[in-house]
Recover the amino acids of this structure.
């Protein structure tokens, strides 16, 4: 089995290296494709192992199209390189389960992507039916941001867009898709440019565009919810992972989640604790099948 890990990152270079080290295994061929936010000081690609490749860097703005564009670029490069599975992670993720268990889960032939049909309080219709700009920091209150936010409010009051799909799906950004599924998504987007045109002016497109294409396809019948734990009990979320959470995880949580976020360069003690748990979970792949 070949697994390509697609990683979007902007900080915490030490943790990024630890993440890659944790995911390397003799039980599968592993490759890493990394997008580094162009706004941030870049790492030296030559300082990484040969199984790591950095894609062309673009500036990424929270909630704007740019993050989905970075993911789309990673996905296209990953399919070109070839793999059985393509796993999207952030640079602040870390595995909770052993590599053997990750491989075993993928061998089930399921698509790991949350598919929530319709709109919800945390995913309102305004996210996709109203017009949003990219290329500015909407969490900042500088003149540029205030001006763009004001223009969005004006557009919201006079115009509602029509979605190109009858059924819109939402989910968390992060997924793990088979080569067949990801190739289908990319081919569909290539043949239906109106989809990317529509989502390029939506809010957090990375939480809906791929999900909507998969949700309206034959692959939806074999999808399971995303396998990355995120703590949304804090604001702004998701918050950093804590030792208290790990030690209080229920059996159901341990069964569902294979990764967690957020980690940073200073999460060494937490990573060591998780590594010990992951070592205890290791099992022969023949038995896993």
């Amino acid at each position: 089995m070949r697994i390509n890990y697609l990683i979007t990152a902007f900080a915490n270079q030490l943790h990024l290296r630890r993440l890659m080290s944790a995911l390397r295994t003799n039980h599968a061929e592993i490759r890493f494709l990394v997008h580094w936010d162009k706004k941030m000081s870049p790492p030296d690609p030559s300082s990484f192992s040969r199984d790591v490749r950095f894609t062309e860097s673009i500036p990424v703005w929270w909630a704007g199209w740019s993050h989905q564009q970075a993911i789309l670029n990673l996905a296209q490069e990953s399919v070109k390189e070839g793999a059985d599975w393509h796993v999207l992670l952030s640079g602040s993720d870390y595995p909770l389960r052993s590599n053997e268990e990750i491989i075993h889960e993928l061998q089930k032939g399921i698509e790991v992507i949350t598919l929530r049909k319709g709109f919800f309080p945390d995913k309102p219709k305004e996210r996709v039916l109203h017009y949003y700009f990219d290329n500015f920091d909407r969490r900042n209150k500088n003149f540029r941001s205030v001006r763009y936010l004001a223009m969005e409010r004006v557009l919201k009051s006079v115009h509602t867009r029509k979605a190109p799909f009858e059924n819109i799906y939402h989910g968390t950004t992060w997924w793990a898709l088979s080569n067949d599924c990801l190739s289908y998504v990319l081919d569909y987007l290539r043949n239906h440019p109106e989809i990317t045109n529509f989502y390029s002016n939506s809010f957090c497109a990375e939480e809906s565009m791929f999900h909507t294409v998969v949700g309206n396809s034959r692959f939806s019948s074999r999808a399971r919810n995303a396998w990355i734990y995120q703590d949304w009990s804090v604001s702004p979320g998701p918050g950093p992972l804590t030792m208290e959470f790990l030690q209080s995880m229920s059996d159901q949580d341990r069964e569902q989640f294979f990764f967690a976020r957020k980690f940073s360069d200073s999460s060494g003690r937490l990573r060591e604790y998780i590594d010990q748990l992951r070592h205890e979970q290791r099992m022969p792949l023949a038995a896993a099948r």
About this structure: Residues 45 and 98 are 27 Å apart (CA to CA).
